[in-house]
Write a structure and sequence with these properties.
- It is built from 9 helices and 13 strands.
- The protein is an alpha+beta fold and 309 residues long.
- It folds into 2 domains: 5-141, 60s Ribosomal Protein L30, Chain: A; 149-297, PurM-like C-terminal domain (Phosphoribosyl-aminoimidazole Synthetase, Chain A, domain 2, Alpha-Beta Complex), CATH 3.90.650.
- The strands form 3 sheets. The protein has a 7-stranded mixed sheet, sandwiched between helices.
- Strand 12 and strand 13 (295-297) form a beta hairpin.
- Helix 2 runs parallel beside helix 5.
- The N and C termini lie far apart (41 Å).
């Protein structure tokens, strides 16, 4: 049996949840969204592709749809913002595309409901290639403003939520975006810089250092390593290597003053683990402190998209 895109769109219209922020949802050329005023508008987008970010047939469509929204919610968390609405664009393979599209929507809708996000519309295409899904999320900053990568200061503590490494064991599909944690941190202390760990701890720390024009020293013994990374280390790489470079942990990496760091450790604003893993220093070098106190350069290992000429 064959279907066209409008059959899938009609199905989604019947199953998408209503939302107070949507004046006009799926069905027009553009959605109409009630947007807060005068809050700053946060916009983020991520494209996920079969064979790169997941494999259709190995992962259920619901998990793929959930991940496509979750990675964008993690970006909003990194700015200490609140997500409001999402639009979804998909290029579905012709064979099996209708069933796949329904499964994607199911995963998207469940996570959207969990975080109060309006699914406002998007675009649906079919082709002879693999699945491509792109989600754009709109959010708002709090009254304290968005947190950027560029505010790290010499003397800051470097801190991280959760535990790191081994994400391919399933965490990269099933993680919970740290929206609540980011908002609680923003309310509790003066965040100087923040990023979500998508490419890997070492690589994403480098982004903060580049934007803030500072250096860093990480304490190897302090880095929180996940059980999955410990189990994955049978591949010849150490658990620490996995924690530094696996990526797709989607935890928060942030810097605060030492006083605020002590405050967070003494009275955490949420149950998720918080760990002090290093300090911001002068210069531009990023180094790793070994248990014996020696310092070695920290290579920004992690995920990269590559191109060829």
């Amino acid at each position: 049996m064959s279907y066209h895109e409008f059959a899938l769109i009609d199905w989604i219209r019947q199953h998408v949840a209503g939302h107070d922020r949507l004046t006009t949802g799926i069905g027009d050329d553009a959605a109409v969204l009630r947007f807060p005023d005068p809050a700053e508008c946060l916009i983020t987008t991520d494209m996920l592709m079969d064979g790169v970010d997941f494999r259709v047939g190995e992962a259920a469509p619901e998990r793929i749809g959930r991940k496509a929204l979750a990675v964008n919610l993690s970006d909003i968390a990194a700015m200490a913002g609140r997500p409001l609405a999402a639009v979804v664009a998909v290029a579905l393979p012709r064979r099996g595309g209708m069933e796949l599209g329904r499964g994607l929507h199911s995963g998207l809708q469940k996570l959207a409901d969990e975080f109060g996000v309006a699914l406002a519309g998007g675009d649906t295409n079919s082709w002879d290639g693999p699945l491509v899904i792109s989600v754009t999320v709109l959010g708002e900053a709090t009254v304290r403003g968005a947190i950027r990568r560029s505010g790290a200061q010499v003397g800051d503590w470097i801190m991280v939520t959760g535990r790191l490494g081994g994400s391919l064991s399933g965490h990269h599909f099933d993680f919970t975006p740290r929206i609540a944690e980011a908002l609680a941190l923003h309310d509790s202390v003066a965040l100087h810089a923040m990023i979500d760990i998508s490419d890997g701890l070492a690589a994403d720390l480098e982004h903060i250092l580049d934007e803030s024009c500072v250096g860093a020293v990480l304490d190897s013994a302090a880095i929180p390593i996940s059980d999955a990374a410990l189990a994955t280390a049978v591949d010849g790489r150490s658990p620490l290597d996995h924690a530094l470079g696996d990526g797709e942990d989607f935890e928060l990496l942030f810097t605060v003053s030492p006083d605020d760091g002590w405050k967070l450790l003494a009275s955490p604003p949420f149950a998720t683990q918080i760990t002090h893993i290093g300090e911001i220093v002068t210069g531009r070098a990023c180094q790793l402190r070994a248990p014996d106190g020696s310092l070695v350069p920290l290579i920004a290992s992690g995920w990269r998209h590559w191109f060829e000429s």
